[in-house]
Fold Pyruvate dehydrogenase E1 component subunit alpha.
Amino acid sequence: MQKITKETYIKWYEDMLFWRKFEDKLAAVYIQQKVRGFLHLYNGQEAVLAGALHAMDLSKDKMITAYRNHVQPIGMGVDPKRVMAELFGKATGTSQGLGGSMHIFSKEHRFYGGHGIVGGQIPLGAGIAFGDKYHGSDAVTLCCFGDGAARQGSLHETFNLAMLWNLPVVFVCENNGYAMGTSVKRTASHEDIYKLGLGYEMPCAPVDGMNPIKVAEAFDEAIQRARKGGGPTFLELKTYRYRGHSMSDAQHYRTKAEVEEYKKIDPISQVKDVILSKKYATEADLKKIDADVKKRVLECEKFADESPYPDKSVMYDVVYEQEDYPFLQHKL
Ligand SMILES: Cc1ncc(C[n+]2csc(CCOP(=O)(O)OP(=O)(O)O)c2C)c(N)n1
Ligand SMILES: [Mg+2]
């Protein structure tokens, strides 16, 4: 793994703060109805992404996830302005404004979405890894999903085939404690989701998902194993989301005190504490980063605001169609 240096900590601080503020902005513009439909935010879970990106080889490795998917593509190199524009439904968005919040996608940056069907991306992630193995590439796919998705049958079918075919994939359960309003405790007779790997003899482990160092170390081991032909790993990242499931969640299933408890181990604060205690930067240096992040987020909003909506004529251009399909005339 690349060494974790002073520069890594500063990058983690800057990246995680940017993702946090980018999504805080989304929450604000959602209320102004600039973003419509569903909006699921990642606040609190940023260490999972920061640690994963450190361990990945971004020139070839791939990622697929569920609908909590706005900041992962940014981490993988997609222009955040285009992500914001997609959320605004604008033509300059990553999918010309036709996908929206749950469907951010960038083939160029190997980010394969953005999936609204809970657990739907689990077999797709294994399929991407199958493709890489078939074509002789040593790329590794990170297939991310939530604790709720871990209860889907497709996980078991996928784990079985991924082990049978020794696929280069890391299965990543981001256990944030809840699937909508249903706590992990209420979904199964056990709470150690990572142990689902045991039934398939898949290497598996729990990871402190609030600490990017622990995350990076766990991902490095799993990614290296997959890259060297050692097959899949299943990691359960213990994390937490500060905001509701989506913007329309009254959060009656948990207390404010519980949320506050987790904020005490906030990944951004943890990294900030290391930076200050090891004197990697001063408070004043970090304030400069904060100001720069704020400016960059405002630039994204301005870009999205000023971009045009897609023309009506493109509406069916990206929908699968078959020339001899007899029932519908698709083109407007
Ligand atoms: C197959 C399917 N069933 C139900 C839903 C409704 N639904 C949307 S999100 C969600 C909860 C999933 O929770 P989890 O996998 O823990 O992910 P998180 O939202 O916590 O990131 C449910 C049940 C859905 N989208 N798809
Ligand atoms: Mg969850």
